[in-house]
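ugh finaly. both done.
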Amino acid sequence: IRLTSGEYRAESAGNSIKVEKAGGGFVVTDSNGTRTMYGLTAAGRQEDALGRASVWYPELVVHLSGQSIEYTYAHDLGRVYLASVGWGPMVGASRMYQVSLDYDRSRFDPILSYRSGMRVATRWRLQAVTVWAKASAAATATAAALGRYQLSYDDSFAVSRLSSVVMSGYQ
């Protein structure tokens, strides 16, 4: 529901959720004071060639304690793919902990949709998820992989189907 102040409130949540327009995106503050920033940059939005957004993705979540979570995205033919999630204290230019997502960018069965009002092609499929951590809070600390999930697909049908997930690296 739009208020005269330019803020929005979630219809079923009363005043417990506040939504404010910020640039091309939104800042949502929940009843606990946690702020989630959606689509503040073009990287966090699914847009058409004219810059009209149909989806705003979270880019940053900040808790009242100061702890935060950062999300990054990759784009291909209108589709937005989650690329990484980082959390914990800043160590140099990145977070102490991170999850990275790797994609197979040449799937044989791309999916084309106009559901959002724009052409969106899904050509990538998730290939691996890697969990990283830095050994110390020193600015020069390098990240080490804690574990990895490798995904495999069955391509014998008209559309690919997930056939296995293999976890490795965890002790």
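ok and the 2nd:
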Amino acid sequence: RPWYIQSKANGTLWSNIYPFFTEGTLGVTAVRQVRTITGRFIGVIGIDFNLAVIEDHLSVSSSFTFIVDEFNKLVASSIQGVAINPQDGTQIMTRDCSDPTIASAARYIEDDLGGYARASSLYGEDHVFHMETTQDASFWVFCSELRDGHGLGWHMVFVEPVTCPPGFEYV
């Protein structure tokens, strides 16, 4: 297995995201090499994380929230079930999400802002982006990097509808 070979050579890492076919969800595995006290390699240990658990936590948010990986594919979303292709159980491209708000935000970040890494770096400068959608709605969009030094390179995106008090108009 690729994760075994990579962990044996490099220590601690994350697997690529893959389908948990028995549960119909996506998952990822944290892998770490195991050595004796003298440093002799004896194996690898891994723990699986079901990404549906992350979706459960995101779904309580009042905003649209999603996590995207380094390949611009959905990891998890506040809209349950949209991160996985129902035909084959694989991840979908964020811009192709069946939820129109998430797909619009992905296209906005990827096309207009230069990608998730750039949007995350701008967020560090207190930038919040204004996005107009085809549904004639306005949203605030901001992106934050999730990185751990062991190969995890995700971005979390928050999309919040622009609301104004009665009698006021956003311009």
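summary for the 2nd one i guess: The mean pLDDT is 83.
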